[in-house]
Each structure stands twice: as structure tokens, then as C-alpha cells.
Amino acid sequence: MAAPVPGRCSFFVQKKNRFCKMVVGKGKRFCGEHATMEGAGSRRIVCPLDPKHTVTEDKLQKHLKKCNSREKPKPVYFVENINAGSADGDDTLHQVSLSERSRSEMESLLDKLKTAVEGLQCDLEDRVLSHLVLHDELNNPKNGDSAHKHLKQQSSILGHLEELGLLGRGRCFVEFGAGRGKLSHWIHEALKTRDGPKTCDGPKTWDELKTCDGPKTCDELKTCDKPKTGDDLQLLLVERCSTRFKVDGKHQEDGVPFERLQVDIQHLDLSKVPLLRQRSLPLVGVGKHLCGAATDLALRCLLETPGLVDATEPPQKRLKPSEPAEPRPGDEPGTAPADSGPGQGSGSVLGLAVALCCHHRCEWRHYVGQQFFLQRGLGAAEFSAFCRMSSWATCGLRPTSQDHTLQDPTSQRGDDDEHEPAEETDTDNRFVAAADRQQVGRLCKLLIDCGRRHYLKTKGFSSKLSRYVSTEVTLENVLLTAVPSSC
């Protein structure tokens, strides 16, 4: 290229052996990035908020007010560390790599693990379900293997919600770790064909009646699509990162409000979300692969947020009638009565369905099952070790430097895009054979999840752990479901 293209930058890029192709301003020879070559005017400096871009020195103050990297005001529902757990539960002092432990230490940990899981009534059941709304997509040949894996998981989660009576209108679905929001999308697809409330937004006067396309008679009102509104359904998506290709943007014209909150679950106060305060709908928590501590944060966010129900408002009509029950003699201390609290009115929690994964990313401070561990003589040190060992459940067959067997390609996780792998030093342990590591990892996961079930029981919920898809779909195939004990 002998000369720059007209209207483009005149800076010659040596590495690319051509002129810069950026558009220049009127009367300029160089683009903003190469404006220092002009030799006149204010020089460009690195932005103090983000060193990835530059700004002219004389316009620095103006730029700082509109820079995308500036600190933005916190939303009203942001309450720092409201769901983080006790501040004295920090386990950073106990985070010791497994490769640094001696043989005696590893044997002691394995003995404690076996003792802790003995007698636990926390078995997993195979419960692979599906929902009709995803039937066409599951049989669509245009979807590749990766898409089919996600669709099977979403279909089974919807099937579990349907079986528990949680998939219906008149409630707000809170999807934690929403990402693109595909799970909420399919919940909406499953519910949009169901009858909405018969509250017509049609004509109010005779003049309006002449031009209204809505129902003219009571018979038309029963079959009209216009009266159905989205006031009885809400989908709240919680994601801390900015996500591209969000599917909730496609539903803005459907009349069903998709609300997205860009906030860490750790700092989310649901009682201060304006939309929830206006609607006062009961809540259903959902999540597809809530990694590690995110599951514990979501449980605290749902079940420990004060003020979800305004005491001055009358409770909403119950969705499932049941007679008030007296506390049973066998109930544990601290357990809510069967008919008090959860699932009873507006702003309450009707239930949850959360796909679990990445237990190696759990933290003792956030963990909701601390009391469960303490009752078994375990603490933060053992919890940290069990979290690291839990990664063996999905990579336990991977041979270490001490194992001379061939690598089994089927043992690798098939959904790396969803999960963060454990540290290599934690999967490489010379004291535990490869064939045993997988079973040990499963026991660690089971023990951690049983602590979560114990927590739910103290909150008045009946919970269950199920393998909701096969291991061919994903090795992280455990779903935690819960509904109030009164149901």
C-alpha cells in the first residue's frame, strides 16, 4: 500500500506492513490512537481507570466522568456481603494442597470421611425427566452435540419443576448464575401457553369498544389472547458478569417481564429489588450448574434475606391448600413448623431446583452446612480438604505420575465450558490410586451436599438429591430440589 486510503489513518503499521485503517476525524491525518503523531495539540495519556485505552490530556477530566471503567453507583439491592456468611468462618489458613500432605494425614482424612458418611440417609436416585416444550429442539438435527447436552439438562430440570408443582404461573422464578438466560427462556416457553389471569385490558367505554380488537362478549373473553398479561409471572435473572447474546432480550415484547440483575449473589438483597416489592409474588429458585460457593450463596439469598414479606400486607392465597400442622415430636431443634414460613404467601419461597457442580470451589465461610460438619467432629480444615478431594469425582480416573495405566478418554468432563477445573496438584496424589479417587470424590460431594440438605431441613424444607441426567451428558449430574415440608 503506497499511500493511506482517503479518510483513514496515515500511520504506517510496521508489523502489518500497511497503513492503519482506522477512520480519522474531519481535518485530521491520524486516528485517536495515533494522534500523538500529529506533533501538535494535547498529547495522549493512558486512562487512569483503564490502561487499555488512552485519552487526550486536556480532556481527561471530561473523559473520567463518562469512562466505561468508572465506578458506577451501586443499585439499591446491593448490600455488601449480605449472603457471605460469618466473617469468622474464613478458611484461608486451612487451604493446604493435597500434594503437600503426608501419607498419615491423607489416611486420617479418608478415615474421617468414611466415618462421617456412615449412616447418612442421603442416597442419590436416578431421576431423568423431560418436558414436552423441549421435544422439538431435542429432535432438531441442526443442534450439535453440545447444544443437545444443554437441552437435555434444561428439559430434565423443567421436568423436576413440573413434578414438584413448582412450574406454574403466579410466581417469580429467580435464576441464579443465569448466564445467557436459557433456563428462564424455556420456563417462559413452558408457561406462556397456559391460561393467564382473565383481566382484560380492552375497552373501557362505548367509544373504545367500537375500535377495540379485543373481546366483545363473555364467550370471546374466554378464548381471547388479549386479556392474558404477564402480571402473574416474573423471571428474574441474576448474573454478576456482563453476558453477550442474552436470550431474555428476545422476550421484551411478549408482555412477560424479564428482569436482569448484574450483581454477585453474595451482595444481593432480594427484599430490595424494586420489581419484587411491586409484584410481591412467591419465589422459586432455579439454577443450572451453580459452581461451588454460588450454591450456598443462593440458598442464603433465598432463605435468609430479611423482609421478603411485608408484615403489613395480607398474605396471598395459598397455591396448595393444606391444613395447619402442629410441630412433630421428632422435629429437630430450630426446624420451622410444617406450616409456618416457607411457601405460604407473597414474597415467600415455594421451592428450588439447582444443578450442583464444582464442589472444589466451595468455601467454609459461605457454606450453609457448617453445623452439619461440626456435629460430626469436622471443621474448616477437613472441609477444605474434602472440597479439594471432591474434584476426583470427575477426574479421578486420570492417571498420576505414579500410575502406569493408559489414560481413559471417557473420564474427561464433557462440559468444560461450564466448569472450572481443579488444580492439577490436587488431582495428582501419590497416596490414593486412580481407581479409588473417583469413589472418594463422590463421597466428598455427597457429604457436602448432605450438609446443604440439613440446612434446608432447619429452614422447614424437604429436599432431595437426584441424578437428573446421565453421566454421558455431564459428570456433574446431581440436582438439588426442595419444597416446604408442609407440601
Largest sheet: 8 strands, mixed
Major sheet: arrangement of strands: 5-11-12-10-9-6-7-8
Q: Please give the number of β-strands.
A: 12
How much β-strand is present in the residues? 5-15%
- Terminus-to-terminus distance: 75 Å
Label the structural class: alpha/beta
Helical stretch tally: 14
Overall mean pLDDT stands at: 78
Order of helices and strands: EEEEHHEHHEHHHEEHEHEHHHHHEE
Low-confidence stretches: 197-206, 215-229, 309-346, 398-417
Shape: globular
**What value does the Rg take, in angstroms?**
28 Å
Oligomer status = single chain
> How much helical structure, as a percent, in the residues?
25-40%
Task: Describe this structure as you would to a colleague.
By secondary structure, the chain is α/β, with parallel strands linked by helices. The longest helix is centred in the last third of the chain and has 25 residues. Helix 2 packs across helix 14 and helix 11 packs across helix 14. Strands 5-11-12-10-9-6-7-8 form an eight-stranded mixed sheet, with helices on both faces. A two-stranded antiparallel sheet has the order 1-2. The chain has 14 helices and twelve strands. The termini are far apart. It is globular. About 17% of the residues have low confidence. Strand 3 and strand 4 form a beta hairpin. 28% of the residues lie in helices and 12% in strands.
